[in-house]
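Subject: Sanity check before I submit

Could someone independently write out the structure tokens for this chain? I want to compare against mine line by line before I put it in a report. The sequence has 246 residues.
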Amino acid sequence: MSVTLTFLGSGDAFGSGGRFQTCLALRGGGATILLDCGASSLTALKRFGLPPNDVTAVVLSHLHGDHFGGVPFLVLDGQFSRRTAPLVVAGPPGVRERVERTMEALFPGSTRVERRFTVEYVELAEGAPTVVAGATVTAFGVEHASGAPSYALRVAYGGRTVAYSGDTEWTDALVDAARDADCFACEAYTFDRKLRFHLDYATVRAQADRLGARRIVLTHMGPSMLERRGEADFECAEDGLVISLD
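---
Independent answer below. Compare away.
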């Protein structure tokens, strides 16, 4: 199988354009790895034919619900579908506490249930390459308030490199994350309006040469970006878009 990146969810927190919340899947390099897992991600996995129990690991850029809120549902789906393989959840410091607190809020008692599989939590430290399900993940601190560190991610997987901005206003850390990547999945929440903690397309376009990625695909698009995506010089993701990295 060739290495692919699938945009299971390319929308914002509010489902603009009827899109699923952020969730990207890396496949073909051994393990199936999700980059973020927004609250709607279990539905997206089933919509696009990726069995949830095939997911080996979830790597989270930050701890907002539209980026990690699908993890409790993924765990519960595994419980009721008799999953046996371990699930790895990697993310910023505090990831286990945030996920388990959310699980208890949604389904009281769910963290104390004995399952056939383990959920293993890994905390990512900024700048320290970490092996997650056979992939090497490097986290870069970005500008997005989430009650914990927020990261852009650089993932070496199956001989390819994928970078992902997460949510952030412009920061030069994105240059380090994206440099020479085979694909850079980059937030473009607005077309040209500057918002604190978020990227706009105009800024990404102006910084593209510095980013140095071989391919830029825009995602996490809000209403203004969706309305004007035809004006963009870069590919705009759609839910279900599959990119071959070979």
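---
OP: Matches mine. For the report I'm noting this point. The mean pLDDT is 97.
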